[in-house]
Amino acid sequence: MGKKKIGKFVYPQTGTQVEKIEQAFKLLGLENCGSSFEFLAQKIQEEGKTILDFQEELLKGEVQYQEDKRLNRWIQQAKLPQLKTIDGHEDTRFNFAAQPVIKPAQIRELASCRFIEQGKNVILLGPTGVGKTHLALALGFEAIQQAYEVKNVQLNEFINLFHSASISSSETSKKRLFRSLAAPKLLILDDIDYYTPSEEAGEFLFDVLMQRYKDQLSILVTSNKNPKDWNLFGTPERSRAILDRIFDHSRAIIINIMDGRSYRVPQPLEQAISNPEPIRESSKLRSLISSASKSMTR
Ligand code: ADP
Ligand code: MG
């Protein structure tokens, strides 16, 4: 088979009229129009609507389809491992009632992505299970919806990426890694203090963050330690430089969830244990225990 010829547009010559229209839509990259126009034409006719209604419906469908494709592509590029949201579907949304130390208004303000426009940084601090990663991923998704380029990386992933780039000994792979971390409008660094990078990796990360500081690009960091105890950038001087510049008061929005409760242990079970009143419905207890054990294996 020869290479598919690109660059020349010719109206399809073979097949029925419907087949030719379908092929023409595909040739023009209007995939959704191609697969929906026939059904839609019939529907519009049955409903007694006009040709303009037909065109509008057809284009709306295509725009939505292309936008869904963009979202998927950007989510993959950003390396968001799961879909988490602030509001929306109950399977993905953040349950504010379960974490009263978090102010919904503050999170919804962040979801507006004004902090990205202003080049501000967000630090989510708190012990494990309080929803730091959830909020980070949800804000990443909000940013993607608003067409900001996002990159999400856990510190251990960064360390691995840095070492693979170093082993390949080619400057281009390090440059590529640098660009992939320095260029996006929002960089999410998750669990920043779980691992200690090597001296070189720490210096590289320092350079990335300094570049982002110069370009006024936002960072969202999650950590379970106070930033002054971070030991990431090789030397205490570099750590201080980062804290002074990037996380100074005018540029940093700190969300303190240090006193939050872990979402991994469902609240009702804790209450059930400390509550002398027996839970009478055994099926309710069973479901509490099974959801608790599921969350512990997570
Ligand atoms: P952390 O990063 O603080 O350790 P995660 O964000 O990973 O915690 O939360 C652990 C799990 O609990 C995730 O599946 C997350 O989606 C869920 N979770 C945590 N807090 C909430 C919440 N308030 N509402 C809904 N789900 C939550
Ligand atoms: Mg986490």
Question: What is the strand arrangement across the widest sheet?
Answer: 2-3-4-1-5
What is the typical, i.e. mean, pLDDT?
86
Helix-strand category: alpha/beta
Order of helical and strand elements? HHHHHEHEHHEHEHEHH
- Largest sheet composition: 5 strands, parallel
Global outline = elongated
- Individual helix count: 12
Number of strands: 5
The helical percent reads 40-55%
Span between termini: 48 Å
Radius of gyration: 25 Å
The proportion of residues in beta strands is 5-15%
Q: What compounds sit in this structure?
A: adenosine-5'-diphosphate, magnesium ion
The poorly predicted ranges are 272-298
Describe the structure.
The structure is a single chain. By secondary structure, the chain is of the alpha/beta class. It has twelve helices and five strands. It has a five-stranded parallel beta sheet with strand order 2-3-4-1-5, with helices on both faces. Helix 3 (51-78) crosses helix 6 (132-145), helix 7 (155-167) packs antiparallel against helix 8 and helix 8 (171-182) crosses helix 9 (199-214). The longest helix is centred in the first third of the chain and has 28 residues, at 51-78. The two termini are 48 Å apart. The model is unreliable at 272-298 (pLDDT under 50). It binds adenosine-5'-diphosphate and magnesium ion.
